[in-house]
Amino acid sequence: MSFDSIHKKKPARLFTGDTIGIIAPSSPFDKPKFRKGLSVLEEIGFTVFFPENIFEQKGYLAGSDAHRAKMLNSMFIDSAVKGIFCARGGYGALRILPLIDYDSISLNPKLFIGCSDITVLLNTFYSKCGLVSLHGPMIESLAEASDQTKQSLHDMLLKEQALTIVCENRVVIHSGLASGIMAGGNLTTLCHLVGTPFEPNFSDQILLLEDIGESPYRIDRLLIHMKMAGCFDHIAGLVLGSFKGCGEPDVVYQVFDDIFSNDCFPILAGFDIGHDEPNLTIPFGITASLDTANGKISYGEFSFCDS
After folding, report:
1. Which CATH homologous superfamily contains domain 3-158?
2. How far apart are CA 129 and CA 116, in angstroms?
3. Which of 215, 258, 270, 299 has its CA 20 to 30 A from that of 104?
4. Is residue 275 annotated as a catalytic residue, yes or no?
5. The pLDDT value given to residue 6
6. Are 175 and 266 contacting, i.e. CB atoms less than 8 angstroms apart?
7. Equal CATH topology for 3-158 and 163-299
8. Catalytic one of 27, 116, 133, 141
9. Active-site choice (140, 210, 214, 242)
10. Backbone φ and ψ of 295, nearest 5°
11. What gap in Å lies between CA 89 and CA 67, rounded to an integer?
12. pLDDT value for 301
């Protein structure tokens, strides 16, 4: 099933004073950074809410699978909560996918934002529920976010405007134009969905990829795995965000050039999206256009959220 066949559900737009719910669906997080990140949302004008047991820890996970899934499910059915942020990525979201109440999410679409390990939730929520979401910073990373990251988040959450994202330091790997629904996220996380019941179908999509701490040969291995599995067979285009700690950018980009040398879709690298700073907030699940000549991603829909 392609994304085009899914009935999209846009969450209601947010307003100053709305309550943002915080969950921890993956790894434990740094408490001082968590508090500082919450203050960023409060400065924007939101009220923040998190369950008292959000600080639970089970080794490298923020509590048991059942605990983390219950926290997520509860936020979607809580009528007082208008949007949901994740405390941190790391690892663990993959484990709770079978425990999520997708029917409740379909009935209660809310603005949901995250990146990194949260990639599995962003893509699964769309394929299972049609939920349009945001790829953007999490609470822990907001504690040390740049002004540009915070401004991008602010504008996406509260402003009704057409959206164009300009790649200031663009590198054209394959030139061209493309149009399709934006999807994707963290490369390593997406690769771990291959072969599962939650594997996304990226046909006719513009696919964003980013990563952190992966050597070029490991990026090669991840891409080859997905390519052999057919994940890229019918995509419309590739957009590359940051590859922090993955070696020299030119070396990383050469990996993409080599692997997709016989493919005709456009590939544009250098977007400030991912684990590095700044980390711009972008919508997943709505149609965008990619133009490598001017280095832009343009969203044709006037606003992210329905009024």
Report:
1. Murein tetrapeptidase LD-carboxypeptidase, N-terminal domain (3.40.50.10740)
2. 20
3. 299
4. yes
5. 67
6. yes
7. no
8. 116
9. 210
10. 65, 45
11. 16
12. 60
pTM exceeds 0.85 for this model: yes
220 phi/psi in degrees, rounded to 5: -55, -50
The CA distance from 158 to 16, in Å, is 8
Say if strands 267-269 and 81-86 run parallel, antiparallel, or are unpaired: unpaired
Mean pLDDT by 10 residues, the chain (307 residues): 62 94 98 98 97 97 98 98 98 98 97 98 97 97 96 90 87 97 97 97 97 98 98 98 97 98 97 97 95 93 50
pLDDT at 8: 83
Q: SS3 letters for 121-174?
A: HHHHHHHHHCECEEECCCHHHHCCCCHHHHHHHHHHHHCCCCEEEECCCCEEEE
Distance CA 213, CA 203 (A): 28
Residues 6 or more apart in contact with residue 262 via CB below 8 angstroms? none
Domain boundaries, the chain: 3-158, 163-299
Measured in whole angstroms, how far is the alpha carbon of residue 222 from the centre of its chain? Answer: 18
Establish whether 160 is a catalytic residue.
Answer: no
CATH classification (class only), 163-299: alpha beta
